[in-house]
Amino acid sequence: MNPTSGDNSLNRRQALRLLGVAGAGALAAACAGPGSGSGSGQSTTAAASTTGSVGGKISFAHWRGEDREVFDKIIKDFTAKHAGTSVRQDISPSQDYQRMALQQIKGGSSGDVFTAFRGAQFTDMSKAGIFVPFDGKPVVKNYKADFIEPGQSDGKQLGFPYQLVFNMPLCNADLLEKAGNDGSPPKDWDSYLGLLDKLKGLGVVALLFPGGSPADYNQLMHSMVMNNAPSDDMFTKIESGEYKCTDDWFITTLKQYQQLSAYFQPNATGTSAEAGQQMLATGKAAMMVTGSYYVTVVRKLGAKFPLNVLAPITVSADKVKYVGIHNTTFILGVNSAGKNQATAAAFVDYLSDPTVAGVYANGTAQHVTVENVDYTDPDLNALSPWLKRKTLLAPLFQFQNLDIRGAVQNAALEVVSGKSPEQAAEEAQRVVDQKRA
Amino acid sequence: MSSPAGTVRRSATSGTAADERRPLRSRRRLSRRVHWSLYLFPLPLLVPYAVFFAIPAIQSFQYAVTDWDGLSPTFNYVGFDNFRRIFTADDLFRNALFNNLEFMLVVLVLQTALSLVLALLLAKQSRAGIALRALFFFPTILSSVSVAFIWRFIYDPTIGLANTLLGDVGLHGLQGPFLGGPNAIIFVGLAQVWAHTGQLMVVYIAGLHQIPQDVKEAAIVDGANRWQRFRYITWSLIAPATAIVMAYTVLQSFRAFDLILGLDQIPPRSTMDILSTRIYTSFAGSEFGYATAESIVFMVIIAIVVWLQRRLVRMTQAGG
C-alpha cells in the first residue's frame, strides 16, 4: 500500500476545497458585520455602582499633557488620603484622544475616570453609554449650575466640564489702555473698529489673526456670531437646515470679517500660532485671535504686561446680548465599563472639592467650573471679572458634523483670503446641503 | 507512524511495478499527495493574514453599502448610495481629489527629476559624493511630523525663513502666505520633495551602477554626445529604477496624510485637503460606511494612476 494514500492525507483538489470552505466561512463571518453584536453600546447608561470601599488602581484618561505635573500633585494627595489607592494618568495627544478615546474607554482597558471634549465627542460618548450619571450625588452642588450644562444629556448629569476658558482675543492691556480702553467690552461695532484704528495708529498689529492655526483663528467665529445670529443655537440650526449660511446675519458676519482683515498682519492666513504668540509677547501685536488658554504660553515667552481678553462687539449698543464667549470642557466622567467605579467616583469627588480645584486652576492658570475657588494666580484674577459678565457658551461646538463645521469656518477664512462674502457663503451652504442630504 | 517529511520522500521514491503500470497523470496525482499535517504549516501566517487583512478587506465592501456610524450595533443597507454621493454630490471629495492630483503631479515631476539629477551627479564613488549622498538622504530619516514642523516654520509668513530670505534679496513680490494661500498644496508638495528626494536618489544610483560600462564605452566610440548617451542608453537602462521611483512617488503622494496633519489639522483647510485626509475626516465624523466607500474609490484611483504611469514610463523608454 502506498503510504501516502492513507486516510490522513489530502490531494491538492481536496486541499483547495477545504480552503474554499474556510474562505466561505470567513466571508460569512465578515458579512455578519457590526450588527452581529449583542447590542452593547446602546444609548442607555449603565447602572451606577459608585458606592463601596475606595481602594485599588484606577486609570485617569485625558489629553492635557501640560497638566500632568499638577495632576501628579493632586493624585499624590488623593492617594495619601485613601491608603491602598493608586491613580495612573493615561494621557494622549488631543487629536489622538478625539479619535481613539471612545473605543478604549468603552472597552474598559483605560479611563476609569475619563474626560470628554464638549460637542461631538461628548455626544458620541453619551450615546455609547459609557458615563455613570451623577444625578442625586452631593458633588453636583460643588459646581456652578450654568457651567456644567454641557455635561448633561437627556436630563442626566453625565459628567462635569471642569475647565472654563474664555475663547476671545487675548490682549496686551497696556496697549489697549494707550488706545483708550480700560478693559471693558466695547459698546458697539463702531467703537470696536475705532479701538482697532487707535491700536493701528500705535504702530502695532491691532488684531493678530493666526490663519495657520485653525484651532486659534476659528475662535473668532464665536464672538462674531454671538450678537449677529438670531438665536443662541445658530449653528445647531445651520446643521439642521433651519438657518443657512446665505442668511443675512451670516453674510453680515462675513462682511465684518472682511472689515477686520484690514487690521490683521500681512499674509494673515498663513501665520502660525507660535509666530502670533511671539508677536503678542513682544508687544508687536495688541490682540491675538485665540483664547485665555494661551496666557501661560505668552507669559513663558516673556510677556510682562497685564493680559486681558476682549471680544468684538458686532452690533449697535441696543442689540448687544453678550459681551464675550466662554467654554466649559474637559468633561470629567466615571466609566460605566470600569471595574473600580467607587474609587473613580471618589477621585471625581476629590477633584470637585474647591480647594483641590484651586490647586488645579492656579497650577495651570485656567479657571474652573467649581464654585468658591480661591484664584491666587494674578492672570486668573485679572480675568475673573469675566466670570460675572454675560458671555455665551462657545457656539461652534454645537456642530456635530465635522464637515459642516469646517465649511462654515472655512467661509470666514476664504473671506480673509479675499473671496467675496456672498460667494464664500454660497460655497459653504452648498457643502452644508450636501452633508445634510 | 510516518512523519510528514518521510511521507513525502517515500511518495516520491516508492516506484513499484503496479505504480509504473498506472497512467502518467494518475501517477503524478499520487506523487502530489502529501500528508494533511503539512497544510498546517502556513497557518501561522495565513490566520493573521485572514483576520487582519482578508476579512477586514471583505468587510469593507459590506460596510461601503451601509450607513454604519462605526459605533452603533445596527446599520442600514443603502445600496450604492454612498458611491452615488461621492461621484455626484460631494464637493469636498472632488476638491480633495483635484488637490491630490495636483500634489501628485508636483511631487512626481520634481521628485523624479531631482532625484535623477542628484544621482547622475553623485553616482561616482568619491568621498565628496558619498558625503553629499548622506546629506541629501538625511531628511528621509526624519518623521513626517518633524518634516511638517520644520516646514511650518519655513513657510510662516510672519517669522518664517522663506519670506525673510525673499525679503532680504529684494524679491518682496514673491513673498506670500504660502500654506495660507490658494496654492498651499504646491508648497506642501515642495516639503514632500525635500523629504524624499534623497531616498529616491539612492534607488537611481543603484540603477545607474547596473548599467554595463562597455555599453557606454561603445556609445562613446560611436560618437554619441553626452545628451545622446543619456537619452538612448542611461534613460532606457534605468527603466526599472524609474518605474520603482515613480510608483513609489505616486503611492506616497496619495498617502501624505501625516505631513498634512502636521501642517494643518483634521479636517484641513480646503486648499490642503487630499483624499487620505478626506477619508479620515469621514471616519472621524462617524460616517464609517461612507468613509469605507471613499476608501474603495481611493484604491481604484490609485490603481488607475499607477497603471497609467507605468504605461507612460514604458512608452517614453520604448520610444527612445
Structure write-up:
The complex is a heterodimer of chains A (437) and B (320). Chain A has 17 helices and 13 strands. Chain A has 437 residues and is an alpha/beta fold. In chain A, strand 2 (56-62), helix 2 (68-81) and strand 3 form a beta-alpha-beta unit. Chain A is globular and about 70 Å long. Chain B has 320 residues and is mostly helical. Chain B is 71% helix and 1% strand. Chain B has helices at 4-13, 17-21, 24-32, 43-63, 81-88, 91-122, 127-137, 144-155, 161-168, 184-209, 213-221, 226-237, 239-254, 257-263, 275-284, 288-319; one strand at residues 34-35. Strand 1 (9-10) of chain A pairs antiparallel with strand 1 of chain B.
Shape designation of chain A: globular
> What percent of residues of chain A adopt helix (DSSP H or I)?
40-55%
Q: Could you list the spans of chain B in which at least 5 consecutive residues all have pLDDT below 50?
A: 1-15
| Cα Rg of chain A | 26 Å
What is the terminal-to-terminal distance of chain A? 71 Å
Average pLDDT taken over every residue of chain B: 87
Alpha carbon gap, first and last residue of chain B: 65 Å
Number of strands of chain A: 13
Task: Summarize the helix and strand pattern of chain B as letters.
Answer: HHHEHHHHHHHHHHHHH
